[in-house]
Amino acid sequence: MAATIASQSSAALKFDLVARCSTTRARASCLTLPHGPVQLPMFMPVATQASLKGLTPEQLEETGCRLCLNNTYHLGLKPGQEVLAAIGGAHKLQGWQHNILTDSGGFQMVSLLKLANITEEGVRFLSPHDGTPMLLTPEHSISLQNTIGSDIMMQLDDVLVTTSPDAARMREAMLRSVRWLDRCIAAHKNPDRQNLFCIIQGGLDLEMRRECCKEMIARDTPGIAIGGLSGGEAKADYCRVVATCTELLPELKPRYVMGIGYPEDLVVSVALGADMFDCVWPTRTARFGNAVTKYGVLNIKNAKFAVDFGPIEEGCGCICCRKGDGGLGITRAFVHHNTAKETVSAHLLTLHNVWYQLNLMREARDAIIADQYPVFIRQFFANLYPNKA
Ligand code: GUN
Ligand code: ZN
User: Fold this and answer.
1) If pLDDT is split at 50, 70 and 90, which confidence band does 162 have?
2) At 342, which helix (H) or strand (E)?
3) Catalytic amino acids?
4) Cα dihedral angle (61, 347, 230, 375), rounded to 10 degrees?
5) By the number of CB atoms within 10 A of the CB, which of 36, 196, 208, 344 ranks highest?
6) Would the pTM count as exceeding 0.80?
């Protein structure tokens, strides 16, 4: 175990900085949450409806995952706040003893429903079940997240889904997100047991991002997220925004870039000083028959895999690929055989892909601790793009 070089605690969270890369902004840390410690940088798989599609909680645990995402909006609709309160929260609902982070819900309504209408009060939308008008306010989102009992709760924010060219609307969204954070802080009932993170907005405008950082930092939440990205912006714009924010953020708080999950983006974002990431992509793509590997994404439905008796990925330590030590020694041929009708392939590829993402971040962490992160990045990209070196 690497020793702590600096640390900071708040009521329900402890952040131990373990190593700083000497040439990039990458850092390795340990984040202790109410349901145990997690090692950063880390990828968090998304269990939208309080279950990771295709995995049991036990299987998710076996991948090494100790922090997964749930969504306030989905849980608030079904099973709903009363059932959540009766059962004692989302950990009990899903039989998960480790940490849970909940997104606040507004982003999902705006991106999924496209029927959402945002005012100062909150996000208005029509129930996808019966079309009745509903309103998600900062207070309601926090009340739901308090009932869910998540270890990390996200503020309700005003997110523009597109890389909107409307600077005035972007500025309104940024300032409204700051005002909504104040309402979230005021509504939060369990600051001793649940951590509320702010979300920095401001689109691709670096000056607006700086202004937002300043406002959010002043509110002193235990962790800080960077939102409004992952919307198809150019990589250079993405990097500029993340770097502009990490330059200003306090060193001893976790930094979470929302909605990011392609392996290339994770590796680069870590170099820019980010610690936490989430995305549905690795698990969703598994259900389309895709395996994420260090040499890129393989579609196992491809006919050539019918007679490929190797593992999904050579050298992978996931339960599907590994032989011995409780591993299943599954072959590509078997996964291919089952992709047609059976769901077993989706389960196996989900296990593999989640393990891949978590392991990528474990390896990044080890490289940062050894102060070899630039070497790690070069090797990562050489594997992915062997002809471009
Ligand atoms: N998921 C991806 N991006 C965002 C964002 O900007 N805000 C919220 N709340 N969730 C997100
Ligand atoms: Zn594997």
Assistant:
1) low
2) none
3) 103, 278
4) 70
5) 196
6) yes
